[in-house]
Design a protein that fits this description.
alpha+beta, 8-stranded mixed beta sheet, 6-stranded mixed beta sheet, ATP binding, magnesium ion binding, chloroplast, GSH-S_sub-bd_sf, Glutathione synthetase
Length: 564
């Protein structure tokens, strides 16, 4: 049938995920420096990337056997939090063991590729020159997992419950301009991109620019730590939270495959939860457009000059027009600078059209600002009365440094009620600035237990393994102020499982790990909260030998959830 499945050999030295023994702990949040050093000293000296525990095949996914002994709690700020979560949620694999014959596998891959082509699960083919600029040219199916990833329903519910709280947190932190400026004051001295963003924010503070109507389309990403059985947040995305469109299609694809082949697989399609991300994002944008109260105005998508993920965006544009009658336009930052103007009443006009909502699918990376033209466009949009998604304040709340600041003791409680703050803290991994000399010392000694993160979005920027040690030593030797541009994060060790990943029509059998993203939508007009919901999900699965996890950057594939 033309579908090929190549089995990739997995060598011990190539597996990036290492598993600590059950008596070892990987949660360092709120530990004192001395306790961190003492605990690290007791950890086994496994080679980075090699699990000394054998793997067993359970339910078609290769998983590390669970340990009978309990993981050690490393001192969350409120006693009992770790224990409480462990009692609420327990890891479970697929209820039924899978046995996939070569013939069944070939049928599954063939049916999946046909369905993807018929239903718009596509991206631009990077080998075709115009595929990122001309719709319909050089399309190829988006990379996807053949079967959904199992996750215990308790973790799923926990992540969904947190979305509205994170939405509210972003809004409240965004209103504290001094907190944002102070927290990023050292970072801006060594990071030109953060400095430019802060400069725009500072100008908005100086002119007392108020965002009366505030719209956020967010995604909070999580991984499940194998040893502690805890769900940890990787990051909170407040700008260009992508794949709401294609992620929904993968959920539909998996339900379709299980409807067709579920009896042979022993899987129930009803256990793949419905994914409403793109419809709820469209609803949020339409409601924001309605609050702007100009029926002739448009929603403007700010896009990159070349965008091979344009179809994910077009699904959102299509639903805005089809369901709500809202017109959209697509413009690059350079085009906005050339065609845009601020009217006397503060309205933003692009080519004579008033813009009600600015929806950023670009502008999150220094690469999006190759000249002053792009920065001029960003400033003009911020000065306007158009609703920004996100505003410059919302954008800054999503930086790594603010994530680390919010993880400090008692900082969350400045913005949230104690009960909500406690719920968020349960999912916080260890986060530290490089000012913490004891943690830096530990990271140099055991770099495999940490991730070094710069203030960047979009994938491919984080530092892992021995590179963490080398970078930290370099910064120390040079006594560089660039330390303020990074944060250290506890590395999370999810369970690896045998998965079938489809790229360019070819099925690869890989040892893989997954990352769950929960979308959230928040819309507020003055004191009235119009929308604050969790809005579907994005599951991404990648080869366990890959450190980074972006789909658009080629590290991961789109996946969905199978609730157990």
């Amino acid at each position: 049938m033309g579908a090929i499945c190549s089995s990739l050999a997995i060598s011990h030295s190539s597996i990036a995920v290492s598993y600590l023994s059950s008596s070892s702990a990987t949660s360092f949040l709120h530990c004192s420096p001395n306790s961190i050093s003492n605990i690290i000293a007791t950890l086994p000296t496994y080679r980075a990337g090699f699990s000394q525990t054998p793997l067993q095949v359970v339910g078609g996914r290769m998983m590390k056997p669970s340990s009978s002994s309990s993981p050690v709690s490393l001192g969350f700020s409120q006693s009992g939090e770790t224990k409480e979560v462990q009692e609420e949620v327990v890891l479970k694999p697929f209820a039924t063991s899978l046995s996939i014959s070569p013939a069944l596998l070939e049928n599954l891959v063939y049916d999946a590729l046909v369905w993807s082509s018929l239903n718009g699960l596509v991206v631009g083919d990077k080998s075709v020159k115009r595929s990122g600029t001309s719709p319909g040219v050089g399309m190829v199916h988006a990379p996807f997992a053949l079967l959904p990833m199992p996750i215990q329903e308790g973790f799923w519910k926990q992540a969904c419950e947190l979305a509205p709280i994170f939405n509210e947190l972003v809004d409240r932190v965004s209103l504290d301009g001094k907190f944002l400026q102070d927290s990023l004051s050292r970072t801006k001295k060594v990071d030109a991109f953060t400095s430019r963003l802060l400069g725009i924010h500072s100008k908005m503070l100086e002119i007392n620019k108020k965002e009366v109507i505030r719209l956020g389309l967010h995604r909070s990403d999580y991984m499940l730590d194998a040893e502690t059985s805890l769900l940890y947040q990787i990051e909170l995305n407040t700008i260009s939270s992508s794949f709401a469109g294609l992620g929904c299609l993968v959920s539909d694809l998996h339900r379709h495959l299980l409807n067709q082949h579920g009896k042979d697989l022993g899987l129930n399609p009803k256990r793949v939860p419905g994914n409403t991300a793109v419809r709820q994002f469209a609803e949020a944008l339409a409601k924001a457009w309605n609050e702007y109260d100009n029926k002739r105005a448009v929603v403007m998508f700010v896009v990159q000059p070349e965008e091979r993920n344009m179809y994910d965006q077009h699904w959102l544009s299509f639903l805005l027009k089809e369901i709500y009658g809202v017109n959209t336009i697509r413009k690059t930052l350079a085009e906005i600078d050339g065609e845009g103007q601020l009217l006397l009443d503060g309205s933003l006009a692009i080519g004579g059209q008033i813009v009600a909502v600015v929806y950023f699918r670009a502008g999150y990376s220094p690469n999006d600002y190759p000249s002053e033209s792009e920065w001029n466009a960003r400033l003009m949009m911020e000065q306007s009365t158009a609703i920004k998604c996100p505003s410059i304040s919302y954008h800054l709340v999503g930086t790594k440094k603010i994530q680390q600041e919010l993880a400090k003791p008692l900082v969350l409680e400045r913005f949230l009620e104690d009960e909500d703050a406690a719920k968020l803290r349960k999912c916080f991994a260890g986060l530290w600035s490089l000012d913490d000399s004891e943690v830096v010392k530990t990271a140099i000694e055991r770099p495999e237990l940490f991730v070094l993160k710069p203030q960047r979005e979009g994938g491919g920027n984080n530092i892992y393994g021995d590179d963490v040690k080398e970078m930290l030593l370099k910064l120390q030797h040079e006594k560089s102020k660039e330390q303020a541009a990074y944060i250290l994060m506890q590395r999370i060790f999810p369970t690896a499982s045998l998965s079938y990943l489809i790229r360019e029509g070819i099925c690869h059998q890989n040892n893989a790990i997954s990352e769950l993203g929960i979308y959230g939508a928040y819309l507020r007009n003055n004191d009235k909260v119009i929308m604050n919901d969790h809005c579907g999900y994005l599951m991404r699965t990648k080869d366990s030998s890959s450190n980074e996890g972006g789909v658009a950057t080629g590290f991961a594939v789109l996946d969905s959830v199978y609730l157990t």
